[in-house]
Design a protein that fits this description.
The chain is an alpha/beta fold. About 35% of the residues lie in helices and about 10% in strands. About 40% of the residues are buried.
Length: about 350
């Protein structure tokens, strides 16, 4: 098993320095455009769960899936551009996408890491356990560990399939298994189960339990009241078995620090991430999917390489930079990366000097 911890490694924003450091010399020489470090692909809007808190459910009603031809071309582009990591996520449930294992294997053959964010219920049925060792990690959404609550949230009876997945993968792959983590969205339906979550998630052989308070994008009444948040905080204080490298539960409220929006949206300015929606449209950032002003192109019209080096992408960078300067950015993984890169730039000389 890989010696990787949740808070020390996976949730540590300083990991941006591994990638930022790789391009610093080019930045010092004046280069501003780079291929993405990672790309998030939403293969399909189809899902076998109907989670009441899902932020994609209503938005994806009219969408289907990326066509096979477009996916083939996209995977080739990822390889040609030297992108380091690929998330297969939703949208819908990515494991329902036909032949997903073939694309994971192809990426692996070219030295590209991939991962899946999944509800876990179809992983075995879709024949993915034999190739699970070719994934960097599997993040499984676990909205409840009680059967009744699980059914109320997902409208399914798939809890046993979800909780048994880590054990089945580890039984096949042993030490070669990927990291298998649980992602738990806390809503007003499951907030009283925190201690049960931690106990059962660990018993089910998950490698971490990542908690996140619901963001009620669809305004469907799943958000937590202040009293419910306080209930969780009080319960956490009573637990004596919390390991910060297994769970982030102690930091899910009030963990965001306010900071000055200085400089530019460096993550987008340097083109470090990309996101592909189920309709084939490409955006520099996941939070901007469906916002036309941030769309840099359509894979049904042009390749990822073409749009990544296009005038349109440069225009979108300007929109992103203005949004950043106006302090309008929220709930975005790039925010801490931008802050760290800005702090680093303020310490660096303006000139790349080959002499030390």
């Amino acid at each position: 098993m890989k010696d990787i911890a949740l808070t020390r490694d996976l949730l540590n924003s300083n990991k941006i320095f591994f990638h930022y450091g790789n391009i610093l010399e080019d930045i010092g020489r004046g280069k501003t455009a780079f291929n993405p470090v990672s790309i998030e692909i939403h293969p399909t809007a189809k899902c076998n769960h109907r989670c009441v808190h899902c932020s994609y459910m209503e938005r994806n009603e009219t969408r289907a899936s990326i066509s096979e031809d477009i996916m083939e071309g996209l995977i080739d582009s990822v390889i040609n551009m030297g992108i380091r990591g690929v998330y297969f996520s939703g949208g819908g449930e990515p494991t329902l996408y036909p032949n997903l294992g073939k694309y994971i294997s192809k990426l692996n053959d070219h030295g590209i890491e991939s991962s899946i964010i999944t509800n876990g219920s179809c992983f075995e049925k879709m024949g993915l356990i034999p190739i699970a060792n070719k994934l960097n990690y599997i993040a499984v959404s676990v909205p409840a560990v009680d059967e009744k609550t699980f059914e109320n949230i997902t409208k399914t009876q798939n809890l046993k399939d979800v909780l048994s997945l880590p054990g089945k993968i580890k039984a096949v792959h042993g030490e070669d298994s990927p990291i298998i983590g649980s992602r738990i969205v806390i809503t007003n339906q499951n907030y009283m189960e925190v201690s049960n979550f931690l106990k059962i998630i660990k018993e089910s052989q998950f490698d971490y339990a990542l908690f996140k308070a619901v963001r009620d994008y669809e305004d469907n009444g799943q958000g937590l009241t202040k009293e419910e948040e306080q209930f969780i905080l009080d319960e956490i204080k009573e637990l004596d078995f919390i390991d910060d490298n297994f769970t982030n539960i102690q930091n899910i409220f009030g963990y965001k620090k306010e900071f000055e929006h200085k400089g530019l949206c460096w993550t987008n300015q340097y083109g470090l991430i990309a996101n592909v929606s189920t309709d084939g449209k490409v955006y520099p950032n996941i939070v901007e999917i469906d916002h036309e002003e941030f769309c840099i192109g359509d894979l049904n019209v042009e390749s990822l390489e073409e749009m990544w080096n296009s005038k349109r992408h440069e225009e979108v960078k300007e929109v992103s930079n203005q949004k950043w300067k106006n302090a309008e950015c929220k709930n975005c993984r790039a925010m801490n990366y931008n802050r760290l890169m800005q702090e680093m730039q303020e310490k660096l000389p303006k000139y790349f000097d080959p002499f030390i």
